[in-house]
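Quick note —
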Amino acid sequence: MKQYIDALKHVLDNGELNQSRAGNVIRTFGYQMRFNLQQGFPAVTTKKLAWKSVVGELLWFLEGSGDNKRLAEITHGDPTKTTIWTANANADYWKPKAKYEGDLGKVYGVQWRNWRGVDQIHALLAGLRRDPYSRRHIISAWNVDELNQMALPPCHTFSQFFVANRKLSCQLYQRSADMFLGVPFNIASYSLLTHIIAKEIGLGVGDFVHTFGDLHIYEDHLDVVKQQIQRVPGKLPTLSIAPKKKINEYEVKDFVLENYKSMDSLKAKMAV
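Predicted structure written out below.
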């Protein structure tokens, strides 16, 4: 994951200190990373990746849910557990809009599976099977008409899929990127999505391309970021997926990172 360490250094070297909605940030605009998924699964090794949470959230997206309790149930087997979305669900700015406890509104998965009646995942799979070389294989979470009905407008806004040499690649456009806490999670999530989609339609995997708009490091994350960039990335793990399962049948336990070895955790407070 040298690509990720290089991206952190890029922000530190080229960013400008600004105020933001959630605190002071060092930020810059426009950057891209590329990961060859055949060379290993891009799980960060210079700190510990919360793999169970990565898988749980993606399965929650694919289910089309916007219920934080359902996310906890998928990830931990217990709807009362805390998730990476709990702070958003409990945020003062959102709670008056929530329709029930744990409601996050029409966030990512809701848009993926029901954009005004359109199931984008179904359409993506059908399109890839029917016309794999089309330039229209896109999933979008940025529903302009419903942004005010979301606990958090989507940071990873849309992804495009591409087939060449019987391999599936994915490019993600991320409008807003918390480089320390969010981006390693996002890399793993969309790389996993690429594997799942490829397996569903009988393709190998190609590249995951991660394109950014606003890249930022929170000022109160600087100490741990500076620790992280001194660490040397280790060998990437490989991904094992349970066989003979369809996209709507997976559980968290069906996805295993084999030979994943990470350095000690580096912790920081999540901005909400």
